[in-house]
Amino acid sequence: MSLVYNWQINRKMEYPHAEHHPERQFAFVFNLNRCIGCQTCTMACKSTWTFSKGQEYMWWNNVETKPYGGYPQSWDVKLLKMLDEADTSGKRAWNGDTFEGMTIFEAAQKHIGENSQRVLGYLPTDEEWRFPNIYEDSPIGPEGTKGNFHKEGVHLPSHKTWFFYLARICNHCTYPACLAACPRHAIYKRPEDGVVLVDQERCRGYRKCVEACPYKKAMYRPSTRVTEKCIACYPRLEGKDPETKGQPMETRCMAACIGQIRLQGLVQTNTDSGWAEDRYNPLYYLIKVAKVALPLYPQFGTEPNGYYIPPRWVPRAFLKQMFGPGVDHAIDTYMVPDRELLAVQQLFRKSNRIIFKYRIEEGPKVFETEIHGKPFTLYNDTIIAYDKAGEEIFRTQVEEPFYVRPDKHQNSI
């Protein structure tokens, strides 16, 4: 085991391989406040990659309803319970921004044994893989039971019941559990973009990766007896799609998103120490500067490269279990955004090409008001997006233009 630094839990941790980072890292931000659960992303992925025999239950992209939904069923609840039982140190919590409990790698070493397995995990049953939409739109009620609506009804703006949609793909982790667990060394991270792939010729279908992945995004295909997983649509990342003329392009699930919740990119890294400072990369800004986008279950220890802007209406305690101690800051900042954050939010889903840089041209003040007791000023700034070559992709304004139709037009009666 090696000691590697995991910035999401703010400490060094044990991992089966030495620390190493790619030239760039595939990463994404999902704004859960915008997701409408339409499953367009799910079907875009399904119709592109997993429509063949043996892939019927493969959903590399899925959208589940929290708190009860999950694919496979209870994937996170089961692992959280296993971690809780394995960690007898009494430190199973966050101390500020440092997670003092055990990761899935450390728990396996200390409580399962070095000769058993490298990662704490479990194999889902066939039944748990069978229902990708389990408990869709099922709310939690005031007494903590499914669909238990308040007798007096729900009166806005106070919600007595709640749920939210959680869109998920493979996180292409910095310290992948699937890679750590594979006895065949069939799983690897691409050095150019950090995408985690399975070598189909080396894989023998032992399903150690399926057992180890805490997010259950490595999936066994019975017809070929090997594992398959999200490949981050890497031909599009390489600029091979004719639409982008050689420039990197967003994945299928990103490009199909109707709710405009997704922003995907390639962030710069230092090959020996994680993310490099890249102030005007939109992902770097949202994750490292504004800190409104948080990793999913950082306490697992894989340092996932998928980040989420938490839903503002969900109880904070539930969100902190999922996204860590930065939830309060993330939601408070998102609800009363500053001038730059408001402009960067306009970049979501405005183009299929990956945005590497942005620039803001200041515009006039539109109005001033107060939101949640805090002053807020809206400026109609223009934000400009640039591709890898430094060429402008598009420019858009914070305030959407307002068009008034003439009295007579072609559809008038």
Kindly state the percentage of residues in helix: 10-25%
Number of helical segments?
12
How many angstroms does the end-to-end distance come to?
Answer: 75 Å
Provide the residue-averaged pLDDT: 92
Secondary-structure-derived class: alpha+beta
CATH architectural name of the largest domain: 2-Layer Sandwich
Strand order of the largest sheet: 13-12-3-15-14
Domain count: the total is 2
Weakly predicted, low-confidence segments = none
Reported by name, the CATH topology of the largest domain is: Alpha-Beta Plaits
CATH top level label of the largest domain: Alpha Beta
What is the alpha-carbon Rg in Å? 22 Å
Shape: globular
Description:
The chain is α+β, with helices and mostly antiparallel strands and 413 residues long. 20% of the residues lie in helices and 22% in strands. It is built from 12 helices and 20 strands. The strands form 8 sheets. Strands 13-12-3-15-14 form a 5-stranded mixed β-sheet. A 3-stranded antiparallel β-sheet has the order 16-19-20. The mean pLDDT is 92.
Q: How would the blueprint of this fold be written?
A:
Layout: E1 2-6, E2 11-15, E3 24-31, H1 40-49, E4 62-66, H2 75-86, E5 94-95, E6 98-99, H3 104-111, H4 126-129, E7 164-168, H5 177-181, E8 187-189, E9 196-198, H6 208-212, E10 218-221, E11 226-229, H7 234-237, H8 252-255, E12 262-270, E13 274-275, H9 282-289, E14 294-295, E15 306-309, H10 316-323, H11 327-335, H12 339-344, E16 357-361, E17 365-371, E18 374-379, E19 382-386, E20 392-397
Parallel strand pairs: 3-15
Antiparallel strand pairs: 1-2, 3-12, 4-7, 5-6, 8-9, 10-11, 12-13, 14-15, 16-19, 17-18, 19-20
